[in-house]
Amino acid sequence: VGILIDIMEDFFAGDKALFGQFSRAAFHDAGTFNQNTGEGGANGCLLNDPAMRLMPENSFLDAPLNTLQAIKDLWHDNAFTCIDVSSADMLQFAIFYVVHRQLDVPESLQSPVATVTAQEKRDIVINEFHWGRLDADVCVPEWTHNLPGFHTAHSGPLTTQ
Fold first, then answer.
1. What stretches of 102-136 show up as alpha helix (H) in DSSP?
2. Using alpha carbons only, how large is the chain's radius of gyration in Å?
3. The pLDDT of residue 147
4. Which site in 25, 35, 108, 126 is 20 to 30 Å from 117, CA atoms measured?
């Protein structure tokens, strides 16, 4: 997990906007859960299914999703990693990482002179994230209608009501 954190830190160093964008992408993936059918949810469809990415409410997420896919590919290509990470886990790890990285201090989690607080945050991310989400075999773009504030005529970023 330390390797994944370091990869993410490198990407964040170049674009701080990724913090909010990763959070929004993870929400959009998880927010498709349908309470009536039990379908949807944090299942990786937003990274894996082109139809989900083309939905109007997801159209502005291309940059963060492409970045997450690049991070996932770097993880899988690294000689020191031995497990494949599902897209579902990648999206949820991204928001877990962002939330914990942004706690209290702005130090990088890979800083060679990290403060105790920064090291504690890194330890939380390494030790407390639970892996094992599976990617959905079938992604149903209509699940995006479960997102709060969604209107079929709406395109672009959602606004709160």
1. 116-128
2. 16
3. 55
4. 25
Query: Residue 30: what residue type?
Result: A
Structure tokens at 71: 């991070």
**Weakest mean pLDDT among 39-43, 62-66, 129-133, 151-155:** 151-155
Q: What is the mean predicted confidence (pLDDT) over 17-43? A: 83
Q: Could you tell me how many helices (H) and strands (E) the chain has, helices first?
A: 7, 0
Q: What is the dihedral of CA 125, 103, 41, 35, to 10 degrees?
A: 130
C-alpha 107 chain-centroid distance: 21
Spatial separation of the C-alpha atoms in residues 145 and 141, rounded to whole Å: 8
Q: What is the helix (H) or strand (E) element at residue 70, kind and residue range? A: helix 62-77
- How many beta carbons lie within 10 A of that of residue 25, not counting itself? 25
Place of tokens 């997420």: 61
- pLDDT band, residue 131 (cuts 50/70/90): confident
Q: What is the reported pTM?
A: 0.76
**What is the rounded average pLDDT of the residues 122-144?**
79
Residue 160 DSSP class: -
Tell me, what's the pLDDT at 34? 75
For residues 155 and 161, give the distance between their C-alpha atoms in angstroms, rounded to a whole number: 15
- Alpha carbon distance 101, 133 (integer Å): 22
